[in-house]
Design a protein that fits this description.
By secondary structure, this protein is an alpha+beta fold. It folds into 2 domains: 5-72, Beta Barrel (Barwin-like endoglucanases), CATH 2.40.40.10; 93-168, Alpha-Beta Plaits (2-Layer Sandwich). It is built from 3 helices and 11 strands. The strands form 3 sheets. It has a 5-stranded mixed β-sheet with strand order 4-1-3-2-5. Strands 9-10-8-11 form a 4-stranded antiparallel β-sheet, with helices on one face. A two-stranded antiparallel ribbon has the order 6-7. The protein is globular and about 65 Å long. The protein starts with a strand and ends in a 5-residue tail after the last strand.
Length: 173
């Protein structure tokens, strides 16, 4: 909560990002250490410290720009310090899925999963404990290319799932 961290749906965990508050111009560097936000239209969840650094902690929401940045680590050899710059990885390739629904009622989640299975779509239900209780997320498909996942996302949005979004997953699908 008080670290320089954030949650993002698709960037690889461990990625460093520069987040700029477009309303006041303040910026901060944060490390992606979690998945989220699980709300359509939001691109990043900031730690309390990140929000405070950007000056949006009292407001709660802000329009921001998110940019992946390189990180550097100090390498000391004798009396000299050299900086090892880590390359920014490609964010296009990885393991992605599309979340089409989230339910408090487990039966509703499995009903939607059954509908997707009936349409010959790979689907799964995952649990997400939140402060306000347990949510059952319905996710469809498995994609290794973010461009392909986003194209499929648009088909879902135009076919009755306007709040669907792409999410990266770290574990086994």
């Amino acid at each position: 909560m008080w670290a320089d961290t954030a949650a993002h749906k698709t960037l690889p965990l461990g990625t460093y990002v520069k987040v700029t508050n477009l309303e006041n111009g303040r910026s901060t560097i944060l490390r992606i250490n979690d998945r989220g936000p699980f709300v359509s239209g939001r691109i990043i969840d900031l730690s309390a410290k990140g929000a405070q650094d950007l000056g949006c902690h009292t407001k709660g929401l802000a329009k921001v720009r998110v940019e992946a940045v390189q990180s550097a680590t100090a390498q000391v050899v004798g009396d000299a310090t050299y900086w090892k710059v880590d390359p920014v990885p490609s964010f296009r390739y990885g393991r992605f899925t599309i979340q089409i629904g989230a339910f408090r009622d487990q039966a509703n989640a499995y009903r939607l999963k059954g509908k997707m299975t009936g349409e010959n779509r790979e689907s799964r239900v995952t649990n997400l404990p939140e402060r306000d209780g347990l949510w059952y997320r319905v996710q469809v498909g498995s994609y290794q290319d973010l461009v392909v996942a986003k194209a499929e996302l648009e088909r879902f949005r135009s076919n009755g799932f306007p709040d669907a979004f792409v999410i990266a997953f770290e574990g086994a699908p």
